[in-house]
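In the current project phase, the collection of sequences with tokenised folds has grown. A sample record is quoted in full directly below:
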Amino acid sequence: MNFGRVLLFAFVLCYATLVFSFSLLMETAEFDYSQYQKDNSADVNFKQDLLKRQYQLKLEELLSEYSQQSEAISQESSLAKMENDLLDLPVPAEYKDLHFQLLQSLFKFQDQDVQGSRALVEQIISQYSWLSSKLSLFLINNF
């Protein structure tokens, strides 16, 4: 019975020494987080670039679709559908202003403010060169 207590005491002493050594080692060790942060930021940048490109393609596709429709966008059902399609697009941070301006121009058009809507679309054309051809065609066909 005495031998069991000595063995238990030796085991507890070894365990405590091991825990203390490990904690001391972890405190003195310096982990280099900069590499992790660099990799993480590269991943975020890649995802933002991918989202940005997908947004550009889907928006151009959407504008082409509504530019080629035989019925004008002025019909209430077409306006509502386009509004819903725009709202369904995932928007990257860089294009939030553009997206807001596009929706604002649709709302102005719905409120019968055709001149205000057209002026806003022309402003978007001047700001976003990658969108100018599709948006110009959309403007010609629907305003």
